[in-house]
Design a protein that fits this description.
The structure holds two protein chains of two kinds. By secondary structure, chain A is α/β, with parallel strands linked by helices. In chain A, 32% of the residues lie in helices and 29% in strands. Chain A has a single domain, classed as P-loop containing nucleotide triphosphate hydrolases (Rossmann fold, 3-Layer(aba) Sandwich), CATH 3.40.50. Chain A is built from seven helices and eleven strands. In chain A, the strands form two sheets. In chain A, strands 6-7-8-3-9-10-11 form a seven-stranded mixed beta sheet, sandwiched between helices. In chain A, strands 2-1-4-5 form a four-stranded antiparallel beta sheet. Chain A starts with a strand and ends with a strand. Chain B contains 17 helices and 22 strands. By secondary structure, chain B is of the alpha+beta class. In chain B, a hairpin with a 6-residue loop joins strand 5 and strand 6. Chain B folds into four domains: 227 residues, no CATH class; 109 residues, Alpha-Beta Plaits, CATH 3.30.70; 122 residues, no CATH class; 136 residues, no CATH class. In chain B, helix 2 packs across helix 12 and helix 3 packs across helix 7. In chain B, the strands form six sheets. Chain B has a six-stranded mixed barrel. In chain B, strands 17, 19, 20, 21 and 22 form a five-stranded mixed beta sheet that branches. A four-stranded antiparallel beta sheet of chain B has the order 4-13-1-15. Chain B starts with a helix and ends with a strand. The chains are: A alpha/beta, B alpha+beta. The interface between A and B is medium-sized, with 28 and 25 residues. The structure holds adenosine-5'-triphosphate and magnesium ion. Adenosine-5'-triphosphate (ATP) binds next to strand 1, strand 2 and helix 1 of chain A. The site of magnesium ion (MG) has 2 residues of chain A, from helix 1.
């Protein structure tokens, strides 16, 4: 599903160049549920942005399925992301001026689907996430957990093959976090490949694999259902 | 542009009412000003005459000369107004004109009275009998003038304009067939012209009634010019046959003009024959009513158009800046959309939808501004206009213009924010949402401020310059005293006075006015100073050969009463002023100003010298009695 070879990312600030991703090599197979961990500033969000095709400032090879993302331009990347990827944010990022239903409809509206189909898909998702009653409310009228539920609904409404989540439960308390994680497991069982960033080991256990970043280096890659592998840091 | 975009844009605007209100007011003023100007441009410059088939109408002569001319015109030999004889000559020479009418170039203000009612000062225009049929205008009531009305023996008749009928004669239908008095002479009203018809030209005071050319001698008596072949006072306008080659027609009419001129001593004498070859006419489309108003208003309107465009541009820059300043919040919004799959095109569309919606709301409010604005401008520009034939009410074209202006404006001020947003890196912008953002104003924002400031400076400089030159005009020294001086206009002829009774009348007016308490001086003149109108003649000095056609012998003159110069505070610098002894029977004396003295009698004493007008043999007619200080 995903193959990264020698991914590098740096930021230039003034005269100094700070490297935040260093020669990352990573293969993620279809149906995996990968958790990225590591201390603050290790480069987890940077990596996720590369995977989400939101960032263009990296070097190396990134194969998404059979598509060489490193050879695509901005527009082609945006098209590819639109087809394959769903994104869940730590601070939800719902649009304040749109209702729950309209927020969920957003990714569909960018895919030039007939309005009728879109309505059906939104209705399905609302139903599945049990938030039908909330569909005409605005985000400000929801609790944090409910907002993140909508955020996830929005990310998966167009049935993406890859779901990326950057600290999806960072702002939630543990019960809500557990519900969200169970939802992820459910989606994963149905075939969605998931990559999430989290600080919580408890959340990580819902997944099948943990990779760890330190100062931009990939330092650990552990398959939770097999024995762990250390990747030597040079 | 989808319905959803619009709905979302509306919510955005509602969410920040302060910004929306500011933007809408700014836009309403900007778009309103432009629409107001367009209303006038449309009403004055782009309109065509309310006559049948205006595109077929052509006028002989391209500029507006007024009133009555004699002799050659200007340096370029371009004839614009013609005598009655010359008009007939041209008409015979140009069968390409299906019909060719003649219209008086300068209108008159005549005293009109119905029965015992007080007389009214109304605008009149002499026209040839075929005027109405040439323009394809029928009557609203009664009938319009016909060829048979424009004949020496025809009964004196007149046609009222619709608005004169409404406003001056209380829309009384019995006026048709009634007799009214014009300059104390009876005329029969034969009909009323249709509403909206104001003649063949757009002026700020269209005629109230039309009279046939043949009635001019009837009104003016001895001073009539209809049969004075060298007095040019008519311009011809006509309908050409389809397919006529205008250039060829112009060449042939110019030849006809020269041929006619060469038969007139007025033009051939004193070396005039030499300049006849360059005399010509220019044929211009007459359907626009291309006249005074358009030429006068055109200049001012162009200026206003530039100013209002600059104002709108400033407004655009201003709003673009406001939008960019709001951008921090919007950036996050757009980053999320891009992260969810919105392409660049969609983002731009969304932002442009928002700005166009904003500018359309502004444009809607601007229509109200335009409606009031165009009326105000008209009132300011033509303070003494009566029934101005300019329609300042919103038409479909004006609505269209306002809509288009709104659209362009919206795109204009939306483009910078849209471009900025669509080129943001979504990853960067998303980061900015979580963390504190550096809120430094961006380069485009700074550029916009500079642009705005520069335009404002241009506007300000223009305004200051204009105010200065206005101030100069206001405080200009005209060489006369104006404080506590008042001007009255009398029209004895309109009241039925004949030439022989006029001197006694004037004496009585002068005596009675002088006797009024508080009146210290009374003077009378054919034209008051600063009126902008005067008679002109070519001066022939005694003992000099007659001046040629190109010589600058022209001088203006005014006929005044004994104490006129005292009354306007102009001193005599040499010789004497007029006295009671300068009567009709005494030798004819004149006063000239210093400029005249210097021009015709350089390095000599002008007092006691003689000059004349018209012909060399009259060069001793007038003796210069004194020189007064030059006034304007
Ligand atoms: N736009 C930027 N300019 C400069 N440096 C940046 C920029 N974005 C990220 N960095 C740096 O890159 C490094 C990695 O950042 P990143 O956001 O990927 O960390 P993270 O692992 O997600 O941390 P956290 O757990 O706090 O979210 C940090 O040191 C950060 O300062
Ligand atoms: Mg992070």
């Amino acid at each position: 599903m995903i193959e990264l070879k020698n991914i590098e990312r740096s930021y230039k600030t003034g005269y100094t160049e700070t490297w935040v991703l260093r020669r990352i090599g990573l293969t993620i197979k279809e149906g995996e549920f990968v958790t990225v961990m590591g201390p603050s500033g290790a480069g987890k969000s940077s990596l996720l942005n590369v995977l989400a095709l939101l960032d263009d400032g990296w070097l190396g090879e990134y194969w998404l399925g059979e598509k060489p993302a490193h050879k695509l331009n901005r527009k082609q990347r945006a098209d590819l992301a639109r087809q394959r990827i769903g994104m869940v944010f730590q601070s939800y990022h719902l649009l304040d001026d749109l209702t729950v239903a309209e927020n969920i409809d957003l990714p569909l509206s960018y895919k030039s689907l007939p309005a009728k189909d879109r309505q059906g898909m939104v209705a399905d998702i609302l139903d599945r996430f049990k938030i039908v009653a909330k569909k005409d409310l605005f985000p400000s009228q929801l609790s944090g957990g409910q907002q993140q539920l909508v955020g996830i609904a929005r990310a998966v409404v167009h049935a993406p093959a890859l779901l990326l989540a950057d600290e999806p439960t960072g702002n939630l308390h543990s019960t809500q976090a557990r519900e969200i994680m169970e939802l992820f497991c459910e989606l994963n069982r149905q075939g969605t490949t998931i990559v999430q960033v989290t600080h919580s080991l408890e959340n990580a256990r819902y997944g099948s694999r943990i990779v760890e970043l330190h100062d931009g280096w990939l330092t650990r890659d552990e398959n939770l259902h097999a024995h762990s592998t250390e990747v030597g840091a040079k | 542009m989808t319905l959803q975009d619009i709905r979302y844009a509306l919510r955005q605007l509602r969410k920040s009412p302060g910004f929306t209100l500011t933007a809408v007011i700014t836009l309403a003023l900007g778009i309103g000003a432009n629409t107001a100007i367009f209303t006038l441009v449309h009403g004055i410059l782009l309109r065509s005459l309310p006559v049948a088939d205006p595109s077929q109408l052509y006028r002989i002569g391209d500029t507006d000369d007024c009133c009555v001319n004699g002799g050659f015109v200007g340096q370029n030999g371009d004839f614009d107004i013609f005598s009655y004889d010359l008009y007939l000559h041209l008409k015979n020479a140009a069968p390409e004109f299906e019909q060719l009418a003649a219209v008086q170039a300068g209108q008159n203000t005549f005293s009109v009275r119905r029965g015992e009612a007080l007389s009214k000062s109304l605008r009149s225009e002499y026209v040839s009998g075929n005027f109405f049929s040439t323009l394809g205008i029928g009557p609203y009531a009664g009938r319009v003038l016909g060829e048979s009305d424009d004949a020496p023996a025809a009964a004196p008749v007149t046609v009222l304009s619709y608005s004169a009928w409404q406003h001056e004669f209380a829309a009384d239908p019995a006026i048709v067939g009634a007799t009214i008095s014009i300059q104390a002479r009876p005329f029969t009203v034969i009909g009323i012209a249709p509403p909206g018809f104001f003649g063949d030209r757009v002026t700020d005071r269209p005629p109230d009634f039309w009279m046939p050319l043949s009635s001019e001698p009837y009104v003016n008596g001895d001073s009539a010019i209809l049969h004075h072949a060298d007095s040019n006072w008519l311009y011809p306008i006509g309908r050409v046959r389809p397919g006529t080659n205008i250039a060829a027609l112009q060449t042939r009419l110019s030849a006809a003009l020269r041929q006619w001129l060469s038969t007139r001593p007025m033009y051939t004498d004193n070396g005039g024959s030499a300049v006849i070859p360059k005399q010509h006419v220019v044929i211009v489309p007459g359907g626009g009513g291309i006249q005074n108003l358009q030429q006068e208003a055109g200049q001012g309107l162009k200026m206003l158009m530039i100013l209002s465009t600059v104002v709108l541009l400033i407004a655009c820059a201003n709003i673009a800046n406001l939008l960019l300043a709001r951008g921090t919040a919007r950036r996050a919004d757009i980053a999320v959309r891009m992260a969810l799959g919105a392409g660049r095109r969609i983002v731009i569309r969304q932002i442009i939808t928002e700005s166009v919606l904003l500018s359309c709301i502004g444009g809607l409010a601007g229509l109200a501004v335009a409606y009031g604005g165009s009326r105000t401008i008209l009132a300011l520009a033509f303070p003494d206009a009566r029934n101005l034939p300019v329609d300042a009410s919103p038409s479909l074209a004006v609505l269209g213009f306002a809509f288009l202006a709104s659209l362009v404006t919206g795109v204009l001020f939306g483009i910078a924010p849209a471009w900025m947003a669509s080129h943001a890196q979504p990853a960067e912008a998303l980061r900015g949402v979580n963390r504190s953002t550096r809120d430094r104003s961006s380069l485009p924002q700074k550029a916009l401020v500079v642009f705005q400031a520069a335009l404002s400076l241009v506007l300000l400089a223009g305004a200051i310059l204009m105010t200065k030159s206005l101030g100069k005009l206001e405080h200009q020294d005209f060489g006369i005293a104006t404080t506590n001086r008042y001007v009255l206009h009398f029209d004895p002829a309109g009241a039925g006075y004949t030439i022989d009774r006029v001197p006694a009348l004037y004496r009585e007016i002068e005596d009675r006015f002088s006797a009024l308490p508080g009146v210290s001086s009374v003077g009378m003149a054919l034209y008051s100073p600063l009126e902008g109108d005067n008679w002109g003649e070519c001066v022939i000095q005694q003992g000099y050969p007659a001046p040629g056609p190109d010589s600058k012998c022209g001088s203006t003159w005014d006929r005044v009463s004994t104490h006129f110069l005292d009354a306007i505070g102009v001193p005599i610098v040499r010789g004497r002023g007029f006295t009671e002894q300068d009567t009709q029977t005494a030798p004819q004396v004149v006063l000239v100003n210093e400029t005249f003295a210097k021009k015709f009698f350089p390095n000599q004493d002008a007092v006691g010298k003689h000059f004349g007008i018209d012909e060399t043999k009259y060069s001793g007619s007038f003796e210069i009695a004194g020189v007064f200080s030059t006034l304007k």
